[in-house]
Amino acid sequence: MSTVDRPGLSDSVAAAVDESRLWAAHVALASIGGTPAGGVCRLALSAEDAEARRLLAAWARERQWSVAVDPIGNLFIRREGQDPRLPPVVTGSHLDTQPTGGRFDGVYGVLAGIEVLRALDDARIGTQRAVEVVAWTNEEGCRFSPGMMGSEAFAGIRDVATMLVVQDANGVSVAEALASTLDATPDATRRPLGFPVHAYVEAHIEQGPELERTGNTIGVVTGIQGTCRLRVEVRGDEAHAGTSRRGQRRDALLAATRMIQAIEQHVESCDPADDVRLTFGMLKVKPNVPSVVASWAYFSIDVRHADDDVMLGLVARIEPICREQAGGCDVKVTEIQRALATRFEGRAFDAVLAATRSRGYRHIAMPSGAGHDARQMAQLCPSAMVFVPCAGGVSHNEAESAEPADLAAGTRVLAHAVHELANT
Amino acid sequence: MSTVDRPGLSDSVAAAVDESRLWAAHVALASIGGTPAGGVCRLALSAEDAEARRLLAAWARERQWSVAVDPIGNLFIRREGQDPRLPPVVTGSHLDTQPTGGRFDGVYGVLAGIEVLRALDDARIGTQRAVEVVAWTNEEGCRFSPGMMGSEAFAGIRDVATMLVVQDANGVSVAEALASTLDATPDATRRPLGFPVHAYVEAHIEQGPELERTGNTIGVVTGIQGTCRLRVEVRGDEAHAGTSRRGQRRDALLAATRMIQAIEQHVESCDPADDVRLTFGMLKVKPNVPSVVASWAYFSIDVRHADDDVMLGLVARIEPICREQAGGCDVKVTEIQRALATRFEGRAFDAVLAATRSRGYRHIAMPSGAGHDARQMAQLCPSAMVFVPCAGGVSHNEAESAEPADLAAGTRVLAHAVHELANT
Predict the structure, then answer these.
(1) CA distance A401 to A314
(2) Distance to chain A for B207, nearest Cα, Å
(3) Is B172 helix (H, G, I), strand (E, B) or coil?
(4) Is the predicted ipTM greater than 0.90, yes or no?
(5) Is the pTM here over 0.80, yes or no?
(6) How far apart are CA B316 and CA B307, in angstroms?
């Protein structure tokens, strides 16, 4: 196929991206699981997730794009290419949110993909390869832990069977929730898991403050820092608050707080540049009543760093520190997820960088602090990401905010890059 | 009235205490709310509490004792005296338990009282004053906080109106739960709150290890240490675990663990004898998910000491310490309950000490580490307590255990003392 006219066509596709339509799509999705504080609670495989999928499928029907789902519930919307046998270009992200999440994390990548398909249609431009928009199942991992289920299953990193038995806090399994979610898109073709992909590009809000701080519109993402997730279970003994002496107690809550402080202080002492991301986001206690010494505490540790050696060195210190601080309690440290640092390179990264330059947006190359489905896809095919600014870098928060013009700019870069990739 | 034959009659009443019957009553009550692990979950004003009250009322009917309830649901079982106009002697404790409570905390004092009435009947011995057995409402305070509602209302320490609006975690109010609980005893006379009491004696398991450790059967309780209960609310900002630097965060969970450790270390440094009881039993976190920096943490502090000056001096340090450790978070410290140290003295204490000596049990005088309804009664009338050993000092725990012979010994002391007091 001739490539002579592609730059011009890519410009046309980018120009056909409609900022108002893209914003209206965000408003529509924000109403599904919208919270009084202006955020979104659309947990993975919930009724709200199903409702969002139903809306996407309806939009696909309007344009006669085909809809498919796979065994973990990943939803694919396909605009056919001139040669259906060629591996498609895939773009997208996820529809699920944190319990008090915002209106852009994840859903932007899906809606940007839909807008690219609409722009291709409106510009009446065909592509050699099909372009597919994907909504990956359960990226966030807050209802069913751990997250990234859809992309990990697709990339063959974890087995679907182990995912289907995971239960939420109410004892509902992924298998049960998935069955009712898939009822929302009864016309979707059932596909087996995984297929060859030519390139994957994911658009996302930055979820950090760098673009805003430096006055840039586009972040060309160079990679994703490594992540390690652990759980620490502490077992002591229940005792009466008024009669048991401190020296006689095995206080699980007190031991857990000591462990958290010791790990935090260890990181503070060896990371003066504040490059390690260390978070204790979850702590559960039993029986959790004021007059009873706690017999059980359970907390999460999330460690991230761009340098795998630094991350793994720190993770190796966590269990010894917990044991030192156990104060007679039993302690069990479990690593539940490990993802080494990812570098984006090759044709997808090159296409995003070239598209950004062509469109003339102010941009920087930058790493991603957050994990994304693109990390898993990078193990399968050339992958890349496009970041746009979000106000104050705030994310995983109902106050999450992004500008319509920035969302459109990122979508124009995506449209340009996807069009290029779909013709190579 | 002649007192010449009372010592002999008190011996007869004590001798009529039936260890097997008392144990059978404990077994019957332990089945109401019994847990698989052998403990009891009989929360205040729950269906199980109502069921326990129904059983007590049935036992009263068998013996033709009268049954009454007051506006906060305290249940009174009265064996009439020769002069009904005289203030009665009251004995009892509470039927409610912690969520993972045991088979003796509280219920022993009520069942020991019932056994005293049965022993008086069986020995065909009348008393000048009526003897009443009371089951105080919501001593534990774990479903509806704070506890001691029944005895505090009876003693006029807190207003019933402020108690009735308290809600449990499911939004059920005390008023609603009380209405359905009182349906369990429809024949009970409705009484106004409070009446003159000649003396109050409460039997209880020690909930500490001293009696067992020193080989004593009876603890003659000299008083109850003071208690102060606080709540600390910490507010920060949600943020993404992967993108926000530690230095930029306002992490409510990290701040709460720092406060807890700083308070604990302060007490360790100024209480080498380990006499201060300091407990952080409850800690709640929002949103409490692994990949989001916590925006809210809420924890309890329970401080107890026999010396009010020590207790209040420590309590005064808590808010400054929390502010020092807030690390940019907002912090609000609220004192929700304060009870100064109580001394048991006067006719009730004297009667318990004399009865213990008369019965010849090995005994010690000892303070109570736990709070009890007797603290409130001591503000109204001469009050006292009888302790019996519990295995390992374990309480507020499903493993709580006591020996039938010890329970009977405490009940014989109670029978002897109550009989004496009911004739003065």
Answers:
(1) 33
(2) 6
(3) coil
(4) no
(5) no
(6) 15
